[in-house]
Amino acid sequence: MEHVRIGVVGLGTMGSAHLRYFPTLVGGGAGAVCDANSERAKAIGEEFGVPWFTDYREMIEKGPIDAVLIATPHFQHPEVTIAALEKGLHVLCEKPMAVTVGAARTMIAAHEKHPKQKFGLMFNVRTYPLYQKIRSLVQEGDLGPISRITWIITDWFRTWTYYASGGWRATWAGEGGGVLLNQCPHNLDMLYWLTGMMPNRITAVANIAKTHPIEVEDEVSAILEYPSGAIGHFITSTGEAPGSNYLEIAGDQGVLSARQGKLQFRRTRQSVKKLRETSPEMFPVAETWDINLTYAAQPENTHKLVTQNFIDAILKDVPLAAPGEEGIKGLEIGNAMLMAGLTRKPVELPIDPAKYDQFLADMTREHGGKKAVASVR
Q: What are the residue boundaries of the structural domains of the chain, listed by start?
């Protein structure tokens, strides 16, 4: 194969955005398009000069494609992924990979049956130089063992008009959750990707419709416990303005913080553990170096970088930027936060998928249909 023909499933905001950079990809491009809206599918298919379909099954069966890029509503990601893998196609799926950890596990199991196909996720934030720098510092040991990770990510401000823009938005049946499933998948992925750590217990407080008349959560505060003894904090909201995006990671060699594009490392001269356990002083001041770290400029189109990487993985067998198997990590953290936050009970990880499915059914039954938001005119 010298050219990867990609079938795009779902031609809404994200699917259309992906197609706009397709002509600049090297070694790949559009092979077909699919959308349930026939007028949209026809118009975009004619624009790009490729066959168009209204049923993804028909496109997978008959389309001149080698791979699919899935940009449908969240609940449909697993079924399209599995169908494509079983047909021998490569898959690049938008985030989140699924709504529930149980569904994500079925996707991973399907890929295990077809290991020759590439299965990647659109976690384009992994290509951000800021987070790549943080990850290298953490994983190469500059901070020493991690003791705490704190992320205040409340700059997801959304208006009532935003939630009124689609009937599926902010509903249990349409999305399966709110701020955690819609706005925060990249941040939740980063909690795992930056540190390589998964929590084993999460407690949280979440609120449904605190600042918007919707069915799902629009505010969450969570505490994550790790097997190593490290602790995590995650605070998010769509009702706060101007909001914050502040990430801080503490380790045995100091504290790394990122805010408003600035990355600072307050590095201790000696091990914090050693200072704590051996200093003869009662109130020693840790000697530190304050280092303002630099990193590369932000690429113009990080979604394109992930798609190009996907093509290169198919043609040249380069490693995927975000392998499908890793998508379950952040999703499981988010599922646990939501379940803990709305039941007010701690959740142990790994999650029991049956219990989470029951929780989702309970939320749908109790809160479904209560979205009452309208746009402001």
A: 4-125+301-324, 128-297+330-367
